Structures are given as structure tokens and as C-alpha cells.
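WARN retry 2 of 3 for item q-0093 after timeout on previous attempt; input resubmitted unchanged.
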Amino acid sequence: MPTSPAPTTTAGAGSGGRHPILLDLAFLRLWTGATASGLATWALPFVLGLAVLDRTLGATDLGLLLAARTVGFLAAVPVAGVLADRHSRRKVVLWAGLASGAAAPVLAAGLDRSVLLMATAAAVAGAGQGACRPAYQALTAEVVDADRRQQANAAMTLAVRVTTLVGPSLAALLAVFLDTAALLVGIGLLWLVAAFVPGRGARPGNAGAAGEATATPGTSFFADFREGVREARRHPWFIAGLGALTAVIATGYSATGVALPLVSRDEYGTEVVLAGAMTAYTAGALGGALLIARWRPRSPGRAALAGLAAYGLAPLSLVFPVHPALVMAAYAVAGVGIELFNVPWFTAAQREVAPDKLARVSSLDFLLSYGLAPLGLALIAPAIEAFGATPVLIACALTCFAAPAAAALVPSSRGFSHRPEAEPAETHATGATR
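OK item q-0093 returned
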């Protein structure tokens, strides 16, 4: 089994050249499927929230369903990482999409009838969502040549941000004409798009042709997962960056989820600050994705970590009684920064991690960063009640600043690479043309 990354170029691959990445049919199919899965993932909690408004679902039941979805997500991520390295990544996406697609009408059938049935379906939907994540990351590395992956990852995240920005208005408009059950069925149709539209995966000449795994047959799931952990540990920049990302999500995101609504209500007396800050964050992330699609900083890893640290401005803006515009500006900068981190981070993993272990390493990324987020959300509200909002928000901001700064001290974090000589070569090869 190989322990070093594949070459960064693929002879004769169709994604080379200077045309926009979305004109590459193989990537366009993958992007369409990923966009559909992202829209379906976002839409489910929103549509279930509409069910609370029309009283077909209770608020407590909504919390139970969202918790079941999270449990399904976290349980599926490591399993999918192993399966996507053992077998075809394309097949993992197919079956994950089919599972989530089948769960959606079951959720609709359980409305106002059986919360247990809905919770089971929500767990299956979450499992499908979790299974897609590492498989899509690995498929991107198979479909797109190395010198265009940053542009491809930026296109992926751009689709997510556009969906988040326009999705609420679209769902609210559809709710005028369709009931909640019909909207849930529509989510199932989106998952069918995610399941069937992406192509087979690797082009001829790429490692793991057609997305077939090279893992040793007959090994146990735990042995394969441990092998993925060993591969992750082989890259100090990855371990340091993942630790920083996990800390920022567990603190900064928690401050956004819990403290921002409280501050908007208690300090400003209006929900406009909450809505404006979240919109500014999404708009900033859109700008960040557009910027990083072409910008190639000399030290990409440290620039990415600086972008991640910018999230500390979000909780910091809630500490002092500033004008609402400053809160929104802080969230806009945080949005720019998070994409300045996300896109180079995914691109570096696709470049540096051994191709036959990429899905497992990606699953470790999602498992830790997303897995600890609920813990942060659960702890921040009691912490605010016990110590007050100001010290908790300051602690969150300091963590967001300090964790990426500590990660940047790891030498290989400079370029998100253990091969220092690769940084100038890649920068020279790609320039500003991608």
C-alpha cells in the first residue's frame, strides 16, 4: 500500500487547461451532485422547523430529530471513510444518497403520526449525509488534476454558500404552495440527484482507477481506520491544523449559535442584528471563496490559519456595546477568513495524503471538527449562565486567535506540506491562472 502522495500531475487528464473548472464535464457532474447534497442537508432542519410552525411537530420533537440526525452523521463518517478507501468512492456516494433519499419520504409519512419512525429516518438521513462527506473529498482528488484542485474546492464551497444565502427565501416561497410532507419528499429528490449525477471517479492514469480502493482485503474496520489515523499523524501540519479547526468550531461557532441570538435580543432589542450578522457571514464567505479560487499566497498554510483565526472577531464583536454595523462587519471578515482556510485545507489534504487513505483522513477531519461542535453548543449556554456572557465570549475569542497561532508554529504548517520544496514549484506552476 503506498505511503506517499501520488504525483501532482496526470498526463492527458481532461481537467487541464485554462478553461473554467465548471466547463469540465466530469467535475460539473460531481459539483452538481455535491450541491444537491448540500442543499438537501441544509433544507432538512429548515423544513422540520416549518413543521413546528404549522404544529405538525413539537419543539421537543424537533430537537430529538436533529439530535438523531447528528448521531447518524457522526456514526457514518468513519465507516464511510473506510468503505470509500476499500471500495469505489462513487458507489459510497450512490448508496449514501439513496439512503438519505429513502429516509425523506419516511420522515414525511411519520409527520403527526410517529416520532420514533421520524427519529429513525432522521438518523438514516444523517448517516447518508455523513457518508457523502469523505467520499466527495476523495472523488474531487480523482476527478480534478492537482493544479486545479484549489479552484475546484473553491467552486464546491461557493455552491454551499450560495445555497445558504438563497435557500431560506426559496424554501419559504415553496412553503406557500407545498405542505411540509411535500417539501420533505422534495429533499428526497435532491438526494437522488446527489446519488446518480456524479460520474465514476478517477480518470485513466490516476491512482485508484475508477475509484477502486487499494486497501488490503480481509482487514478489519478498526485496523483500516487506525491506518488512516497513522496516515494523518504522518503529516504534522494536518494534526496541528485539525486541532485548531476543532477548537475554533467548538468555541467560535458555539458563540455564534448561542450568544449571538441572546446579544441580539438583550443588547440591541431586535432580531435584525442576528439576521444581519449571519447574512454578512455568508456574504463574506462567498467573497472568500471567490478570492481563494485565484489567490496563491507565498505561505499558503499560514495564510489559511490566519484566515481561521479571523473567526475570533465574531465573538469579540459581541463583547462590547458597539454599533450593529461593526458586528456585521466582524462576521463578514470571519466569513472571508473561514474560506481562506477551508479551500487550501481541503486542497492540501488531496495533494499530500496518500490517495488510498484520503477518505479515511477526511473522515477523521469531519469526525473531530463536527463531532465536538455539539459539545461546545451544549456547554456554552450553562457557561454564560454561570460566568456571564462577557468572560465566556472573551475566552471563545482568545481560543479562536490562539489555536491557529499555535498550529502555525509547526514548521510544515507554512505550506501545509511536509515537502518544503513543493511550495514554490506549485506556486510557480499555477500562478494566478486557476
